[in-house]
Amino acid sequence: MQSMDDLFYALLQDVYFAEKELLKILPKLAQRSSNETLKLAFRDHEDETSEQVGRLEQVLEIIGREARGKTSDTMVAIIAEAQRMMDEIDDAAVRDAGIIAAAQAAEHYEIARYATLLGWAEHLGEDEIVELLVETLEEKRHADDLMSSIAEGGVNASASERPEAAAEA
Amino acid sequence: MQSMDDLFYALLQDVYFAEKELLKILPKLAQRSSNETLKLAFRDHEDETSEQVGRLEQVLEIIGREARGKTSDTMVAIIAEAQRMMDEIDDAAVRDAGIIAAAQAAEHYEIARYATLLGWAEHLGEDEIVELLVETLEEKRHADDLMSSIAEGGVNASASERPEAAAEA
Question: CA A14 to CA A60: how far, in whole Å?
Answer without folding.
Answer: 12
